Amino acid sequence: MAAARALGDDALVLAQRLGEWAGDAPVLEEDVALTNIALDLLGQARTLLSLTGDEDELAFLREEHEFRNVQLAELPIGDFADTTARQLYFSVYQELLYAALADTGGALAPLAAKAVVEVAYHRDHAEQWTLRLGDGTEESHRRMQRAVDGLWRYTGELFEPLDGLGVDLPGLHPVWRERVADVLGRATLTVPGGPDRTPWAAGAGRQGVHTEAFGRLLAEMQYLHRAHPGASW
Amino acid sequence: MAAARALGDDALVLAQRLGEWAGDAPVLEEDVALTNIALDLLGQARTLLSLTGDEDELAFLREEHEFRNVQLAELPIGDFADTTARQLYFSVYQELLYAALADTGGALAPLAAKAVVEVAYHRDHAEQWTLRLGDGTEESHRRMQRAVDGLWRYTGELFEPLDGLGVDLPGLHPVWRERVADVLGRATLTVPGGPDRTPWAAGAGRQGVHTEAFGRLLAEMQYLHRAHPGASW
Amino acid sequence: GELQAAFDDAVAADTRIEPRDWMPDAYRATLVRQMAQHAHSEIIGMQPEANWITRAPSLRRKAILMAKVQDEAGHGLYLYSATETLGVSRDDLLDKLHAGRQRYSSIFNYPTLTWADVGAIGWLVDGAAITNQVPLCRCSYGPYARAMVRICKEESFHQRQGYELLLALSRGTPEQHAMAQDAVNRWWWPSLMMFGPADGESAHSAQSMAWKIKRHSNDELRQRFVDICVPQAEVLGLTLPDPDLRWNESRGSYDHGAIDWSEFQEVLRGNGPCNEQRLDRRRTAHENGTWVREAAAAYAAKHAADQDNAHEEARA
Amino acid sequence: GELQAAFDDAVAADTRIEPRDWMPDAYRATLVRQMAQHAHSEIIGMQPEANWITRAPSLRRKAILMAKVQDEAGHGLYLYSATETLGVSRDDLLDKLHAGRQRYSSIFNYPTLTWADVGAIGWLVDGAAITNQVPLCRCSYGPYARAMVRICKEESFHQRQGYELLLALSRGTPEQHAMAQDAVNRWWWPSLMMFGPADGESAHSAQSMAWKIKRHSNDELRQRFVDICVPQAEVLGLTLPDPDLRWNESRGSYDHGAIDWSEFQEVLRGNGPCNEQRLDRRRTAHENGTWVREAAAAYAAKHAADQDNAHEEARA
């Protein structure tokens, strides 16, 4: 179930990042929406991780290199454009992934069938904001372009094969590129031209290599749990 | 040795905060100076805490409410004006404190005699920057006034009696006020008018009541140590 | 005049006043003040709890806490909408909050220092809020009353979750128990202050009661809250930090010790532990969001123009 | 001409060239490029290590790490000063760094992912730096050579501390040992790349050797480093991640596997794991400090004016 754990880590880590927005969103509606997305992801994470062990032991007692999430999920939240760009890249990926996973009829299919509905909403939400920011003001356009450019090199990793998943992830990559390009185009944004992964680190999360930001994320997330070994909450 | 522990906690926690500046100071000379001050404080902390137990157990395995540092030491670093204002308030206090402590001839006197030399440098450094920022540009004046105002309500706590210290801390308060007022005056800044402590929390660090920022400071400081129980480093 | 008489009759008959109805200016102003304060409290109230989302010690508790903070944002939305029925915009209300010209509940100027504070806020702060708010479900102003019905249902859920969180701590390790006790020690008195000044000292109470915005006096509600909490604290295995708390057989209620109103006044005056921090953070979030709101407005304007053009073309 | 001949004689005689001496433009330009890169590396190099100051697992290690980062700031200061003797200002050099027009060592574009990375940087990165820098103590340009003497002394101290940190981890718990091994796995190859391209590929080497700025070829220095590290790794109980590493009896040196120069080129091109992050952080720190530097300048100007006035008055 290494694949379930990898997908569970993605969802957990991104939920943790989105949780940082609570109370600080640009409009109150987004406090609701971002927390809602975070809750969906946290729910997916709990189901997936529970398939492979105790959810709390996995979340709170693993070391950095034992997490298998993509680096895209762990990057700092940045500004609202960075968050929107990540949500776009990630939710288009998740929608394709869960739809394909639901079709496999395997052990993860029921979960995927439920999640794909949630994720379609996340994708729609990200798309709407990509349009507003890309095609809004000069400033929002500039910020949004910088955000989609900056995150591009973390997107290749999403389509690395995951053993035992039963989904042809590399095969989904062209569809993902098409869909993302379509949204970016409608948002008057340019599809980034650089590499979609880079040597050594960007794109090695699935091998347990993360970014400097991830250690700090874990320190915050795990501190309290680790400070009380064996306690129940 | 409750007093030694309280003073040790002050020094440890402020060193931890100053350590956050490393690499991010406004000029390279300040990267050197702030780290130097942090190192002095860390040295004081290690000596003081070692008098009352194992320095690492005390630093890394106590819970928030077991720390006895003043809240002034734990507040976030803010901008360079906030850091300068805290350094001014704290170093003038420490200079008076250690000078008086050295005179007691008690157990802490040798440490205090050494520390007072270090702290005189810290005070001079803070004073120079208070003058530059207060009497620099309009913007720096505005920032520095806001900083000295904002931290004022945490200063009363510094002069709360500490059992067994042998120093009349409340008796040092008027001298402190005079010295701080002198520097602020020369820096064309106004001595803050508000209360120098506030109910319930501001000024209760010596009783183990801290600020929201302190829990996050400890999470970062203690995480790695706690993640490897019993390990040697 | 006639309008005033119709209004008075409606209030007397417990008929709801609706946005289209005439109402006295002072009634409207009182509602705006109270409802805005209530809405602001929901959004400022997210901060002390959101402080623990990233550090929640189990995934189940993290999910519960996220959902709670989300509910608070939702409550803020209903309440701003309800307030807008009185002819003031959310933007205007937010500007007043940010300028310090409208208040939020003082309770949120206390810090959440440990995980147990999340439980204490649920049990005591939400508990006090419910005690205050349940009667508001019968408030004379319709939109406010209806918002309250929904909010109270969710709040009572939060209150139970907070209680259960504290129970788990109280029955946990000695460190967890101490954490729970410490949180209750810190939140008990501020929670009692949430009901406002003693009846003799309360500026707005009498008129609000006459208008049926308010249905019970501050002291009545406070007493009700104390009477609910004391037995719950016993089940929790936690002590309420008031040596004068004891059953009064003749009143059929618990007597409690004197409240330190000077602290209440200090916090109101802006000198609470977190007043500046809370408002600064709110202002910063709002300022950081300016470019986003501007973008959304610009996009909506372009998009509306597109639709107009489409209509024009269809007609031509 | 005559000046060129004097310069050539001085270089040939191993006499130091000093700032007041005539020197060829290309020599000056090469030095500025190299010394600026060196200075920039010291200040960018603070970031990956400062990343662990707040999380150091013991107070002793925290103090050692703080002192090391402080030393790096100090090295930056000497090196900017030494570069200024060539007629360029520190501000100008910093602007070029921030604009991406001058480089810093690519090694700092790798992240410090665990505490063990602090040790690996000390042992391998500082070790490689020393191997590169010891010959620079005899560099033909006086101010650079003298700065290097002081820097090398401190660096070798850092190198020993890093080695000792790794030794403690390697002999610690299985998790600590694994952490140390993982760090060495990640830092070994990038450290070998610090010596620059293979001798055949190195653009500036021949001229620099002729000018006695450089004293040994890249490959010579790299070999020296490998030969030092292999036995140290054995004592550490850690494996160097190169299956082709073996003693070559005939050369009296260790052979090592082929270096992946495409990675080196990618990192140079800006596509390393932390290129953007490092430069962004540096720029942000500089921008955040603008008002402070302006204040210091304004204060100094006023103060200078005060002193002038005092002089005037004294004269009058």
From TrEMBL, chains A, B:
Signal sequence range: none
Organism encoding this protein: Actinacidiphila acididurans
Name assigned to this protein: Phenylacetate-CoA oxygenase subunit PaaC
InterPro entries: Aromatic_CoA_ox/epox, Ferritin-like, Ferritin-like_SF, PaaA_PaaC, PaaC
Gene name, Swiss-Prot/TrEMBL: paaC
UniProt xrefs under Pfam families: PaaA_PaaC
